[in-house]
Amino acid sequence: MKNELIPFINDIDTLVSEFNEMYQHRLLKKQETKSEKVKKTPLTTEQRKIVFEKTDGLCHVCGCTIDIADFEADHVRPNSQGGTNVVDNFLPACSKCNNYRWNYSPEEIQWILKLGVWLKTKIQVRSEQGLEIAKEFLEDEIKREARRRLPRSPKILSDYSFSILFPIKGKIQNRILEATFEEIEIAKEIIKNFGIENLNSNKLELFHNKIFVLSGESNIKRNEFEKLIESLGGQVKKTLTKNVDFLAIGNFYGLNKVYDVGKINNEKNGNIRIITQGELMKYVC
Predict the structure, then answer these.
(1) Number of C-beta neighbours around residue 22 at 10 A
(2) Contact 238, 245 (CB under 8 A)
(3) Taking residues 15-30, what's their average pLDDT?
(4) Domain boundaries, position 231
(5) DSSP state of 3
(6) Which residue, among 152, 111, 149, 159, has the nearest Cα to 280 in the 3D structure?
(7) Which end of the chain has fewer CB within 10 Å, C or N?
(8) Is residue 143 situated within a structural domain?
(9) What confidence tier does 1 reach under pLDDT thresholds 50, 70, 90?
(10) Domain-located, residue 180
(11) What pTM value is reported for the model?
């Protein structure tokens, strides 16, 4: 197909060669464009308005809302790659997307997206490979932030309110079986009815001799999370029964487990409380 810019590659040497070739081509094109001495003229206020309205005030790359007063007009085809400064060659972008898009060719952008999606998934599922690369990435991020005139404070681990956690019906390999909107609403109602609001107990009272069942992914490794609970006198079981005290839910928690809490509490006089793993961490730490 004409639009398939990315070829199929199955060995590292060819992949590195492909990246180098695209990079060299971009540098050569940049020099050719410089030699032509293309005059760059800023867009007028009216032209910027036309560009802004093309996407109804949204960044054309990430889709975030941008302001007409400070958005950046992004070249669809960069100047260095032969693009011109006519209005038709501009789309509105936020400063971050415009910066990272740089002057890459369409082929390079597609590779960056493909690699980025792959790597993000590796990190998200905490694969050994993904975590190793993430470690190097964060080391580089720390150095970059330190060079800012006003370095920002790092974001702290989120508590993850149950309202943004997603219930699933299972997994097939790396693919999750998603819950429907109606199922999500039922799960939220059960969590609301049997959730944790104000726990005034101290840590020892809260965890001592209490039985926990975990569902979903945590922000730390599962075995480490279990050890934290056990270090405070709690027990972690795999099966949800009337004797369980807490169901701790994390990212992509089991829909059936939440439904079971509702059934056990309503039909068998159980007293299982549902708490997010993020909320639970506040009591552990």
Answers:
(1) 17
(2) no
(3) 84
(4) 162-284
(5) T
(6) 159
(7) N
(8) no
(9) very low
(10) yes
(11) 0.72
